[in-house]
Write a structure and sequence with these properties.
About 40% of the residues lie in helices and about 20% in strands. By secondary structure, it is of the alpha/beta class. Strands 1, 2, 3, 4, 5, 6, 7, 8 and 9 form a nine-stranded mixed β-sheet that branches. The termini are far apart.
Length: about 300
C-alpha cells in the first residue's frame, strides 16, 4: 500500500462526543489519500468507545499512559506519521469537506519559502451561540503580529506543514500546556513565511478556557522566550504581548468566578497597552455574555 500524502494528527483528552464530529469531518473530505492518527492523551474514558462504530483502515490510534498535554500528543502523532504533509485538527473542531484538497493544492503550487499554511475559518462560540468568519489577511507580517497582537491563525485545526519542517524547526514544546502552537509558529517564522489559504476551510468551536494557573505557567515560559524578541518589532512589542497574556488570564478567571483578580489583570493589561483593539472589547463582552446568557447587556 502506498504511503498517504497527508498525515492528520488529532489529539484528544476527554472529548468523546466532539471527537466523533471531528472524525466525521475528516472522513468526509473530498481528498482521500490520508491517514488519521488519533492520540488519546490518557482520557478518563478511552476513545476506543467513541470509535467503536467507525471502521476505516486509514485511522490509527495511540494512547498515552499518563496525561502529557496537547503538545506531547501532537508530537507523538508527528513521530508516527508517514505522510509528506502534516495537518492538525483539534478534537472539538471540524473541517469543511474541501479542506485537505485546498491546502494540498496550495502547497503543491506554492513557494519553497512557504512550506506551511493556515486557512481562513469560521469561529463558533459555544458559550453564547454566536459565530463569525475569520478572514485572515494574505499580506500580513505574521511574525510581527504574533509578537504583538497574538495568534489568531487557529493552528490547532488549520495548520498544514511539510513533514520535514519539524526536523528543522523542532517539535512542540511539551513544557507548555498552552501557547505551544503559538511558540512553534514563531520558531517557524524565524526561518520561513506562512501561506494563507483564502478558502474558508474549518469551523473552530470555542468552549471553556483552560485553568488560569495553566495560562500563568505557560505565559511565563512564553514571555521568557519571546518578550525580548518582541522588541525587534517596535518599542511597544513587549507591552502589547504582556497585555494579550493578561487578557487571556482574565477571561479564564472570569470563568472561574475569580472576579477581583480578573479585574486586576484587565487593569494591568490596559496599563501595559491602553490602545487595545476594539475587537478585544467586543470579544470580552461576547465571552461574558456566553458565561451569563440570561443577563441583559
Amino acid at each position: 500500500m502506498a504511503s498517504p500524502d497527508v498525515s492528520i494528527i488529532l489529539p484528544v483528552f476527554n472529548r468523546n462526543k466532539t471527537l466523533q464530529r471531528a472524525v466525521a469531518s475528516v472522513l468526509g473530505q473530498t481528498f482521500n489519500n490520508f491517514e488519521l492518527i488519533i492520540v488519546d492523551d490518557s482520557s478518563t474514558e478511552p476513545v476506543v468507545s467513541a470509535l467503536s462504530k467507525i471502521s476505516d483502515s486509514r485511522i490509527r490510534h495511540f494512547r498515552h499512559v499518563v496525561n502529557k498535554g496537547a503538545a506531547a500528543a501532537r508530537n507523538t502523532g508527528i513521530k508516527k506519521a508517514v505522510g509528506r504533509y502534516i495537518a492538525f485538527l483539534d478534537s472539538d473542531d471540524e473541517w469543511l469537506p474541501n479542506k485537505l484538497l485546498s491546502e494540498t493544492t496550495a502547497m503543491e503550487l506554492g513557494s519553497n519559502r512557504q512550506p506551511a499554511s493556515c486557512a481562513r475559518h469560521f469561529v463558533a462560540n459555544g458559550l453564547d451561540g454566536d459565530s463569525w468568519r475569520r478572514l485572515l489577511p494574505t499580506d500580513m507580517n505574521w511574525r510581527k503580529r504574533l509578537l504583538t497582537i497574538g495568534c489568531d491563525l487557529s493552528p490547532g485545526s488549520t495548520l498544514f506543514v511539510r513533514r520535514e519542517i519539524f526536523d528543522e524547526v523542532g517539535f512542540f514544546d511539551e513544557t507548555m500546556r498552552r501557547y505551544e502552537d503559538w511558540d512553534w509558529l514563531l520558531r517557524y517564522l524565524s526561518r520561513y513565511d506562512i501561506k494563507i489559504v483564502e478558502d474558508t476551510l474549518a469551523v473552530i468551536h470555542l468552549s471553556s478556557p483552560p485553568p488560569s494557573q495553566t495560562l500563568r505557567e505557560s505565559s511565563d515560559i512564553f514571555l521568557g522566550r519571546w518578550q525580548k524578541e518582541s522588541r525587534s518589532v517596535g518599542w511597544s512589542g513587549p507591552r502589547r504581548l504582556r497585555a494579550r497574556m493578561l487578557i487571556d488570564r482574565a477571561k479564564s478567571q472570569i470563568f472561574e468566578k475569580k472576579y477581583l483578580v480578573a479585574f486586576y489583570n484587565v487593569i494591568c493589561a490596559v496599563v501595559n497597552w491602553p490602545f487595545q483593539r476594539p475587537g478585544s472589547a467586543v470579544a470580552m463582552v461576547r465571552y461574558v455574555k456566553g458565561i451569563y446568557p440570561k443577563r441583559s447587556w
